[in-house]
Amino acid sequence: MKIIKYISLILMLLSISCCVNQKQKDEEQIKNTIREYWTAIKNNDLEGYKNLFDEGENFAGAMQGDLYFLHKNYNKINPNDVLLKNIKIKDTVVMFAENKQKYIQYTIKKENDTNLIKKPLIITLMFFKPVGYNKIFNLAPLKNHIGWDK
Predict the structure, then answer these.
(1) Poorest-confidence range of 17-26, 43-52, 89-98?
(2) Which contacts of 97-106 are long-range, i.e. CB under 8 A and separated by 24 or more positions?
(3) 79-121 pLDDT, tens per residue?
(4) Helix, strand, coil: what percent of the chain each, to 5?
């Protein structure tokens, strides 16, 4: 009887350990994708940028516009690569677990805008496990970017 209790305890601990390890692997994959995202922007690498998005090759024009904006404003948006230092991965709130996505969101306020005349630039990068955490799921990550750099 004691042997069965020990075996079941060991199996339970192993299953918990596997879940924790998978979560860490998933988060590390997302962080690597984020690093590649900012590297592609910094280097103005359109092919690398498009390859980070699920079906990015089908939306080359829009992606090129986003990359142009991000590269042009890179030093304002990500000075000294500050956005890479503290990547916070969040879960979306959905009713069904199979639809849950992970995301990283950056809110960048316009420098020297003490009156908050300009809305902050919002960059949201979504990840969906069935697509793979090495691909960004949403093709339009920028919000409030039109006129933000003026």
Answers:
(1) 17-26
(2) 101/126, 101/127, 101/128, 101/137, 102/26, 102/30, 102/126, 102/127, 102/128, 102/129, 102/133, 103/127, 104/30, 104/34, 106/77
(3) 888 888 888 998 887 766 667 789 999 998 877 666 566 788 9
(4) 50, 15, 35
